[in-house]
Every structure is written in C-alpha cells, then in structure tokens.
Amino acid sequence: MSKIYPSPAAALSGLLRDGMTIMSGGFGLSGNPESLIPEIRASGIRDLTVISNNAGADGFGLWMLLESRQVRKMISSYVGENKLFEQQYLSCDLELELNPQGTLAERIRAGGAGIPAFYTRTGVGTVVADGKPAEIFEGEEYVRETWLRADLSIIKAWRADSAGNLRFRKTARNFNPNMATAGKVTVAEVEEIVPDGTFDPDCIHTPGIYVDRVVLSTINEKRIEKRTVRQRESV
C-alpha cells in the first residue's frame, strides 16, 4: 500500500496534539523538514517538547515554532546561531536540555534500537553529568545516558518510493536516518518520489519499515547559513 500523501497538511493529519514530543531532523540549515514545520505551526498545538540538533536559524526551520511560542522544551546540542532561542532560554520561557552532539545522536539511535540506556565518557566531570548515575569501567568513570524517543518524527530526505524507502544527499544524511527509527510515527518529506524498483536495495539509507507517511516537499530553499568569499585576484 502506498504511503504517499498529497500534501504536508494531509501527511500530518490526525497526528498532532498538545504536549507531544516531536523529533525534527536537520543539521544547521541542511536536512530540515521545511514543509512540515509550517503545518505544525498552523495547527496551533502547544507545550511541545522538540528534539533536534538545533532549533533552526533566524526566520528558518524550528525558529517558526519558537516564534509562535509553541515549544515548551528543547532537547538539543547546538543553539549558537539562534538569537530567539537564546532569548527565550535566558528569560526562562523555554526549558533546555543541552546534550553533547555525539551523545544526542547516540541517545536517538538507542531509542530506535530499543536500548534504554548506555554509558559514555563524554560529559564526565561537567554539568552534563549532574544528577546522572555513573560507573567505573576499566578504571575510568562513565556517565549513564538514556534513550530518546518521540511521538512523532518529521524528517527530510532526497528520494522516496511508495513503500517509504529513503535516500538522503550529503549533509542532509545527518540526524534524519536515526530519527526515522525513534518515532512512534515517522513522516518524511522528500524532494523527489521515484517509481518502485528504482532503488538498489543495497543503496537504501532508511528502509520503509521505519517510515509511515511520505509527502513531496513544497519548500526546498537550500539556504547557506554562512557565506565566506574572497576577493578575486587581479590578473
């Protein structure tokens, strides 16, 4: 049965509610589910816990949900390029659970793999470890981290077929594949929907078993977060 939906709004129909936890793919401005986020904003749901590497940039991505005050808590790794995020956190309008980036990725992977907890050296001796159990392994201290799972994962891929098999391009293959496995429901927006049988099975990045709904992207801006140029040398 085809998993393809006719629009981003249709792909999210019946899935959204107040107080839910949402995983949102993306790394900086790459691989953000640009078409699904505006539909979440339009739905008006509130008190969201959002798990994402960052919360978009000014005017882009998850910034839209911060601007509309729909997010109660962010579980993130990097917040440095988002002034609104900073302002809301410093004014105590937004709860933040800050994670080392590798720990965040592994917590999401663990959630998808059914692993409730794991130990890591990252964060030992810092505020990251405060209040968390620790154990000694081979003479070194390790802090225990727990899995992350979500009611809904929204991700962005390059291509999909009707079964929901996905392929990603370059940096967009960041948090998206792991998040696809860790949501009770996963909705993937894609740049292109291809005929069944197009993908070599060995080249599928995310198998369709992890993807519940697929929709063609309506927004594909591909912004550049920071552009650095040099003056052309005179001849």
From TrEMBL:
It comes from the Bacteria. Coiled coil: none annotated. GO terms for molecular function: CoA-transferase activity. Keywords: Transferase. InterPro entries: 3-oxoacid_CoA-transf_A (IPR012792), CoA_trans_fam_I (IPR004165), NagB/RpiA_transferase-like (IPR037171). Gene3D superfamilies: Glutaconate Coenzyme A-transferase. The keyword Transcription regulation does not apply. SMART domains: CoA_trans. PANTHER family: ACETATE COA-TRANSFERASE SUBUNIT ALPHA, KETOACID-COENZYME A TRANSFERASE. This is Succinyl-CoA--3-ketoacid-CoA transferase. It comes from Novosphingobium colocasiae.
